[in-house]
Amino acid sequence: MPATPAPLTDATRDEASLRRFLHGLPGVDQVGVEQRAAGLGTRSIKKAAKLWAIDTAISMVDLTTLEGADTQGKVRALAAKAKRPDPDRPDTPQVAAVCVYPDMVKTAVEALRGTGIHVASVATGFPAGRTSREIKLADTKIAVDAGAAEIDMVIDRGAFLEGRYMAVFEEIQAIKAACGSAHLKVILETGELATYDNVRRASWLALLAGGDFIKTSTGKVSPAATLPVTHVMLQAVRDWFVQTGDLRGVKPAGGIRTTKDAIKYLVAVHEVAGEQWLTPDLFRFGASSLLNDLLLQRRTQADGHYSGPDYVTVD
User: Fold this and answer.
1) Is 103 among the residues known to form the active site?
2) Which of 152, 212, 261, 293 does the annotation list as catalytic?
3) Is there a catalytic annotation at residue 86?
4) Which of 155, 120, 144, 142 lies closest to 280 in space, CA to CA?
5) 63, 67, 227, 240: which has the fewest Cβ within 10 Å?
6) Is residue 137 part of a domain?
7) Which residues, in sequence order, are CB contacts of 2 under 8 Å at separation 6+?
8) Phi, psi angle pair for 79, to nearest 5°
9) Host domain of residue 264
10) Per residue in 132-174, pLDDT tens?
């Protein structure tokens, strides 16, 4: 991997340097990014390409349950669906990961052992993140010790919006260190950042601090993932790669419910970041209901007629 260029190294030297770097990033053309997102969203693809897109999207899903009423039984059922999304169609791809709270990681790990499906866990006081760093680190350690291969952390949006960028940077670094070999997805909660410029700054801040993925949302705040916001984040990882030679991923989460929506995101990945990002290693969908629609549309494409919702399991 090429060494990080001096300007990026210098950017994190102190608060003033980090502020100067983040506020020196090019401003986002709001009209331009929204028009481009809308334009890519109208692209049509042929049947063979659509089947490929559906299978690719399935393989990128982080199948998620993050509710107070989660039980071990529900997590085991979700793991079973992750392994065989459509039991009648054994050629259906497995999903990328199952995402749960830290106390459910052990159950998910046991249910998915030997499958290659990752177990992801939200941590750091998800979804608000309003707790001490000590508790955030302990939360992360609980999940990693239980076997989580991926950690989805939330940034301190209050500190970011106050301009205390170094505090956010250092916290991400600390969580990254606590992850050990687990990959770190950094949730920006873009719906609370207010502007595309803030999304760009938060994206670069997370990348500078060592995030393996940048993620739009917790799914608990509206708006969650949007195509224009995802465009800005895809631009960030593309530009990071150009400068460093280091590939980082993007995960839109929340509000992506249909195959049509998922395909729009895949088109954006291809056109904004590049074809090499069209892999679960670099792009994920944070979703629960999306998988059912992908499975229904997959059957429709294969059979030539709509199968109806009774043919897929309800989460």
Assistant:
1) no
2) 152
3) no
4) 120
5) 67
6) yes
7) 244, 245, 246
8) -65, -40
9) 13-302
10) 999 999 999 999 999 999 999 999 999 999 999 999 999 999 9
* Domain contains 270: yes
Say if 1 falls within a structural domain.
Answer: no
Name the domain count of the chain. 1
Q: Which residues pair with 56 in a beta bridge?
A: none
- The DSSP string of 113-162 is TTS--EEEEE-SSTTT--S-HHHHHHHHHHHHHTT-SEEEEE--HHHHHT
Phi, psi of 221 (to 5 degrees): -125, 140
Q: How do residues 1-60 score in pLDDT, each as one tens digit?
A: 344 555 788 999 999 999 999 999 999 999 999 999 999 878 777 777 999 999 999 999
Pick the catalytic residue from 176, 185, 215, 264: 215
- Please say if 106 is a catalytic residue: no
Taking the C-alpha atoms of residue 180 and residue 183, their distance in angstroms, rounded to an integer, is 8
Its pTM surpasses 0.90: yes
Q: Which residues pair with 97 in a beta bridge?
A: 62, 118
Distance CA 59, CA 279 (A): 8
**In Å, how far are 85, 108, 119 from 292, measured between CA atoms?**
9, 20, 20
Q: Which of 139, 251, 264, 293 is catalytic?
A: 251
First to last CA, the chain: 41
Instruction: Scan for tokens 């224009």, then name that residue.
Output: 228
Instruction: Give the single-character DSSP code of 303.
Output: H
Q: Would you give the DSSP letter of residue 283?
A: B
